[in-house]
């Protein structure tokens, strides 16, 4: 299952103390993926809902879940769930099988008995099915069985990372997540989800159920996944960029048709709209490593890739412009055919002169080069400025350029034993001396970099001390006075598995890093973690983008921020290889939003004149924009007091309650409105800490509190610090 400048330091210190006092470790949200669009409506025992990529209906028999598979699906594909029975230790519990659902907020609720309630909460990422037990007679395992029907039911199989999946080859489908049991004390237990005789079986072990504090909740998650390219072709090497003008992501990837024929394909994706049609951007005997960048103000993308006439011949860097309306510009070679150019990357110049950009590449046997370009209007091709050398070193590899900064860009690359960073400036000159960071011996790290306003984060893989596997390290570098300086460095991911090939995107308030992890022989998963803007500190729990026991590799990430949006978020894309098929590659994508909004818990009502307090955004670590809004209709009020409390007893006066203040702020009101900023630091220790808030005004005379006759108070709310 898956917040007065003088008083703020005291609040943060109290938050940290409360986090230290937590007795139950917070279980990380392994999905890490959230979208905002969802809802539930209806009446008379029939409800209808939707999420970012699915629709759902509820009637007296149960749920009908339909993923949004797009135009490729020639007919609807549904998965239907209907309760078949509940048992404890093999003995059936009395439940009503056919019950009309009732709506409770965003949830469809079935009252199965006086002690059992089945709930389906409609969320952006899927439907949270849960069973709440207020009484459990007997002893033994708790088992819930649901009948399966619909077009997707015959495709059920165990998913690689646990849970079940119902996927039509080449289309996608539905996943049913792992089962978790949660008792009234907050204790958790991992359950099991199985296919038994054509039915869905959810269970919790007796060792947990027999001692669980009631009420007990059992909950899997039913959700959908974006499948950009699946089926009988070898789709691999994905990349992605966002364009705020069209509100679309553009996914590009390489499709291998045979040993002598390949294509570069592109496809748009937008939440609540879905995938656009795939377009061929280029064809040839050899095409590799496509990369894409958005030029938001021009409402265009630029896609580049390696192009060659044979697997043993020279390669050049080719390009194609994709307009926001889906039309294509001319194909264009950007480097001379006589040079052997590989490993391209590129960046626009967001927020400055948006039709300018820079691309980097490696010329085999020579070194690394860069070239600035201008993106003209209309249907013309790129205008190229003279190329310039980043470093004349044949051993330099993997050039990557920052995507989010304006003016000066930085290029990160690898040499044996070190990460090197070099700043450059439009229209094509180097800035200052390069900065080198040693990574040990002859290891050649894979690297990436991003940043803005003179502060940059580089990520790389490096050999773990005393082990043969690799860790993921972050290196923060500042550009000051034309010189690159190390600010901080830290290990971002370390495990006994091999972590490698990191990619990075600046989301605005923090970074998102993704990488590959080896989980077994030819088994890989994609992992991710948010990183703070300063100090190389985690700004969220590490999460699994994909499941283990699969071959999910080549992750890339495209941020909304880089494409001109003020809304933080990104699309993570990766290739999934099925080694049992002769052409094994599929392209998948999943959206990441760094701040998960959680509904506030109402503590008590206000007293006196009408006053309301509400959170302005998500109470999440790293959310510098978090705060509270206060409003009142009392024209006599010119100031508001905001009381923030952490695990404090409420104060009382005249029958009304007040949040005991850990911190107290004073804000002026204009037209009865005001706001109070509480910027949240990046500290995973704060996750799960409760923060209570209440506002008060001094306005028109009231009499409920003798100590302050003009005092009126707002509602009191509680939020938990999240990601």
Please tag this protein with its features.
Immunoglobulin-like; single chain; Beta-galactosidase, Chain A, domain 5; 2 helices; mainly beta; 11-stranded antiparallel sheet; Neuraminidase; 9-stranded antiparallel sheet
| Beta-strand content bin | over 45%
Q: Please, what is the average pLDDT?
A: 84
The CATH topology of the largest domain, please?
Answer: Neuraminidase
How many strand elements?
60
Helix proportion: under 10%
Low-confidence stretches: 1-9, 20-37
Number of domains: 3
Distance between the termini: 13 Å
- Determine the number of helices (DSSP H or I, runs of at least 4 residues): 2
CATH architecture of the largest domain: 6 Propeller
Q: Estimate the global geometry from the Cα principal axes.
A: globular
Oligomer: single chain
| Radius of gyration over C-alpha positions, nearest whole angstrom | 28 Å
Structural class: mainly beta
Overall description:
By secondary structure, this protein is mainly β. It has three domains: 8-25 and 597-720, Immunoglobulin-like (Sandwich); 39-223, Beta-galactosidase, Chain A, domain 5 (Distorted Sandwich), CATH 2.70.98; 226-592, Neuraminidase. 2% of the residues lie in helices and 54% in strands. The protein has two helices and 60 strands. The strands form twelve sheets. Strands 7, 8, 9, 10, 12, 13, 14, 15, 16, 19 and 20 form an eleven-stranded antiparallel sheet that branches. Strands 1, 2, 3, 4, 5, 6, 11, 17 and 18 form a nine-stranded antiparallel sheet that branches. Strands 22, 23, 24, 25 and 26 form a five-stranded antiparallel sheet that branches. A hairpin with a 2-residue loop joins β37 (409-415) and β38.
């Amino acid at each position: 299952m898956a917040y007065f400048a003088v008083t703020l330091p005291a609040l943060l210190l109290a938050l940290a103390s409360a986090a230290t006092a937590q007795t139950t470790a917070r279980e990380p949200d392994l999905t890490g993926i959230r979208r905002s669009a969802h809802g539930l409506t209806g009446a008379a025992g029939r409800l209808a809902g939707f999420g970012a990529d699915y629709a759902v209906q509820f009637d007296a028999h149960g749920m009908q879940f339909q993923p949004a598979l797009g135009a490729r699906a020639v007919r609807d594909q549904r998965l239907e769930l209907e309760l078949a029975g509940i048992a404890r230790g093999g003995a059936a519990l009395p439940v009503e099988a056919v019950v009309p659902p009732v709506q409770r907020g965003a949830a469809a609720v079935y009252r199965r008995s006086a002690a059992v309630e089945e709930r389906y909460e409609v969320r952006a990422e899927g439907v949270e099915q849960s069973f709440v037990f207020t009484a459990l007679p007997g002893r033994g395992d708790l088992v819930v069985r649901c009948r399966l029907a619909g077009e997707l039911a015959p495709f059920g199989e165990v998913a690689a990372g646990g849970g079940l999946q119902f996927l039509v080859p080449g289309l996608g489908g539905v996943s049913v997540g792992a089962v978790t049991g949660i008792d009234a004390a907050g204790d958790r237990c991992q359950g099991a989800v199985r296919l038994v005789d054509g039915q869905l079986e959810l269970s919790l072990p007796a060792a947990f159920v027999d001692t669980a504090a009631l009420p007990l909740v059992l909950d899997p998650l039913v959700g959908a996944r974006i499948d950009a390219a699946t089926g009988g072709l070898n789709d691999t090497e994905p990349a992605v960029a966002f364009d705020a003008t069209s509100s679309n992501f553009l996914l590009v990837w390489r499709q291998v048709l045979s040993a002598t024929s390949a294509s570069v394909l592109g496809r748009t994706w937008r939440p609540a709209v879905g995938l656009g049609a795939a377009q061929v951007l280029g064809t040839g005997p050899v095409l590799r490593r496509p990369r894409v960048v958005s030029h938001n103000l021009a409402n265009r993308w630029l896609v580049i890739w390696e192009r060659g006439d044979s697997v043993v011949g020279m390669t050049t860097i080719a390009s194609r412009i994709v307009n926001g309306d889906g039309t294509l510009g001319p194909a264009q070679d950007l480097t001379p055919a006589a040079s052997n150019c590989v490993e391209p990357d590129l960046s626009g110049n967001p927020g400055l002169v948006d039709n300018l950009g820079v691309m980097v590449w490696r010329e085999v046997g020579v070194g690394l080069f860069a070239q600035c370009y201008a993106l003209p209007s209309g249907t013309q091709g790129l205008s190229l400025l003279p190329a310039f050398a980043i470093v004349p070193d044949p051993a330099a590899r993997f050039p990557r350029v920052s995507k989010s900064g304006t003016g000066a860009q930085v290029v990160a690359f690898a040499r044996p034993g070190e990460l090197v960073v070099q700043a450059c400036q439009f229209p094509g000159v180097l800035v200052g001396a390069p900065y080198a960071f040693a990574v040990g011996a002859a290891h050649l790290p894979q690297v990436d970099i991003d940043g803005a306003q003179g502060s940059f984060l580089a990520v790389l893989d490096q050999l773990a001390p005393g082990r043969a596997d690799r860790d993921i390290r972050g290196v923060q570098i500042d550009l000051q006075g034309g010189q690159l300086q190390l600010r901080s460095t830290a290990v971002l991911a370390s495990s006994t598995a091999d972590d490698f090939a990191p990619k990075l995107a600046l989301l605005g308030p923090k970074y998102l890093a993704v990488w590959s992890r080896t989980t077994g022989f030819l088994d890989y998963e994609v992992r991710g973690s948010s990183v703070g803007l300063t100090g190389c500190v985690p700004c969220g729990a590490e999460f699994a983008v994909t499941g283990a026991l699969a071959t999910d590799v080549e992750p890339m990430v495209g941020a909304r921020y880089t494409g001109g949006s003020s809304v933080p978020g990104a699309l993570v894309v990766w290739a999934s290889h099925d080694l049992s098929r002769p052409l094994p590659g599929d392209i998948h994508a999943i959206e990441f939003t760094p701040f998960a909004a959680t509904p506030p818990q109402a503590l008590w009502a206000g007293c006196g004149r009408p006053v309301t307090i509400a959170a302005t955004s998500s109470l999440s670590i790293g959310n510098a924009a978090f705060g509270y809004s206060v409003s009142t209709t009392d024209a006599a009020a010119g100031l508001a007091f905001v009381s923030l409390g952490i695990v404090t007893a409420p104060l009382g006066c005249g029958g009304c309650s007040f949040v005991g203040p850990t911190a107290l702020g004073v804000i002026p009101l204009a037209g009865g409105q005001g706001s109070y900023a509480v910027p949240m630091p990046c500290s995973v220790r704060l996750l799960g800490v409760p923060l209570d808030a209440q506002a008060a005004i001094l306005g028109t005379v009231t009499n409920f509190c003798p100590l302050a006759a003009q005092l009126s108070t707002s509602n009191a709310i509680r939020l938990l610090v999240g990601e």
